[in-house]
Amino acid sequence: MRYLMMTKAPAEPTAPDEKLFTEMAAFIEELTASGTLLATGGLAPNGIRVVSSGDEITVTDGPFTEAKEAVVGFALVETRDRDEAIELARRFRRIVGDGESVVQEVFGG
């Protein structure tokens, strides 16, 4: 099963320290070596919003006022089941600290 694990922007951003870099590097290396991690990356805050209503399509450049709700990073993982995906998200949150992540199953992959 594939899951997209997304991280939202923290309410109060802090600069990462050496411990965070070390722990995250080890976590990513472990998931990559096991074949669990398929892709990962950070997302730029100034996205593009495309909205359709009937025949009208509106394109708006960001950043947007609701940036605190924005997804700032992602990981695409392949796990045995939902419980394993949740455990990976728990491990990630323990490394990075307070904040919010969203995990969604990816269909058709």
TrEMBL record:
Cross-referenced Gene3D superfamilies: Dimeric alpha+beta barrel (3.30.70.1060)
Domain YCII-related residue range list: 1-92
Family stated for the protein in its record: Belongs to the YciI family.
Annotated protein name in UniProt: YCII-related domain-containing protein
